[in-house]
Specification:
With 378 residues, this protein is an alpha/beta fold. The chain is 47% helix and 19% strand. A 5-stranded mixed sheet has the order 2-4-5-7-6. The protein has a 5-stranded parallel sheet with strand order 9-8-10-11-12, sandwiched between helices. A two-stranded antiparallel ribbon has the order 1-3. Helix 11 links the parallel strand 10 and strand 11.
Length: 378
């Protein structure tokens, strides 16, 4: 078991490194495809091809995030989301092209708002449904239900999600072992799928449980805390949708990848902002200081968290905040599960953005960051 654990750890390190680099490349591909689609006018056929390529690239980006989750296993990046939409998209994606019947039940019409990492919760749903599909073989039915609940054990109020199948069920003697790492009944299984699910739900402050009966199917239950301010915050972005468009801002971007710097410049210039790019944290600090001295300070700074062989975003942010305690700094990384990304406010950042990002994503981040703190512009 010790040797197996060491091998898995080594694979995790390898997977993380490859996924990080691949994620950056995908970001460049997606960004350039999006920019090409925006500048094309009447060539409908070309836009169709570009749209299909963009969609496939985003699917690939989702796969890299799963690799990064496996390799890093860090804290979730929680954002207010409608759980019903996250679950529906994940379930339909996994069962697309299969003969399994998928049905949804909901006891309420309102959105089931919770603070979640939609990528991680989506991975949980996919892992559970993949297991159900494999257990049922050809055909079968999977039923997903979601509702708000006022009495959820220790959680008081929660979003209650259940995924049940009509498969052969799980034997009683192994039911209490299915969440154990490395436990599997499959010949080629790693035994990590449900262990990751349990870890993710626990880190969300939720509860994952299972009941099963032989020849009668299996039901997994997920309970996640309801956000007390969910309804208020969920509609806030629409109210400030034009904040970033009200003015041309001066933005400093630090990233060690030249192609990402070029792409970010194209994207932000396209929506009307003035962009300066640098390679590492030291250059970022120097440029920020010079801008302050010239009385033309930067309105916003986007810092890459990890810079091989140079000063990264965390260290650079500390120095920038010493220069200017009111600096508005966004942290960016391909490692979306890094602790700094999860608790960015504790490190002085006003927002976080995960790679790969696109024009719409950048606009949303600018709106949030600039709206929350005002601007330095005179």
């Amino acid at each position: 078991e010790s040797l197996r654990s060491e091998k898995l750890e080594s694979i995790g390190v390898l997977a993380g490194g490859i996924a990080h680099d691949f994620n950056n490349l995908l970001g460049i591909v997606i960004g350039n495809l999006e920019m090409a689609e925006r500048v094309l006018d009447s060539n409908v056929k070309a836009r169709t091809y570009i749209s299909a390529a963009t969609k496939a690239s985003r699917r690939a980006a989702e796969l890299t995030q799963q690799l990064l989750t496996f390799s890093k296993g860090g804290d979730p990046i929680k954002k207010l989301s409608d759980l019903k939409e996250v679950v529906r998209e994940s379930a339909e994606f996994v069962l697309h092209g299969t003969s399994v019947v998928l049905s949804f039940e909901s006891s309420c019409d309102e959105a089931l708002v919770a603070e979640i990492d939609s990528g991680q919760i989506g991975q949980v749903v996919q892992n559970i449904i993949i297991n159900a599909r494999q257990a049922m073989g050809d055909g079968g039915r999977i039923t997903v239900s979601a509702r708000n609940c006022e009495n959820c054990q220790d959680l008081k109020r929660c979003v209650h999600l259940s995924i049940r199948d009509d498969g052969p069920g799980i034997a009683p003697d192994i039911l209490d072992k299915i969440f154990d790492p490395y436990f599997t009944t499959k010949e080629k299984g790693s035994g990590l799928g449900l262990a990751i699910c349990h870890s993710v739900i626990k880190k969300h402050g939720g509860i994952l449980s299972v009941v099963s009966e032989l020849e009668a199917g299996t039901e997994f239950t997920i309970k996640l805390p309801v956000s007390e301010v969910g309804k208020t915050k969920a509609v806030a972005p629409a109210k400030r949708a034009t904040v970033a468009a009200q003015k041309n801002f001066k933005i400093l971007i630090m990233d060690d990848e030249e192609m990402i710097r070029e792409l970010a410049t194209e994207m932000l210039s396209f929506i009307g902002h003035q962009v300066t790019t640098v390679r590492d944290g030291q250059e970022a600090v120097e440029n920020y200081r010079n801008a302050m001295d010239s009385e033309k300070p930067f309105d916003l700074v986007i810092l890459d968290l990890t810079v091989p062989g140079g000063m990264g975003g965390k260290e650079a942010a500390e120095l920038l905040l010493q220069l200017d305690p009111k600096a508005r700094i966004i942290v960016s990384s391909g490692y979306s599960n890094d602790p700094v990304m999860a608790e960015y406010e504790q490190y002085g950042f006003v927002a976080t953005i995960s790679k790969p990002y696109d024009v719409n994503g950048l606009e949303r981040i600018l709106e949030n960051a600039l709206h929350s703190s005002g601007t330095n512009s005179s």
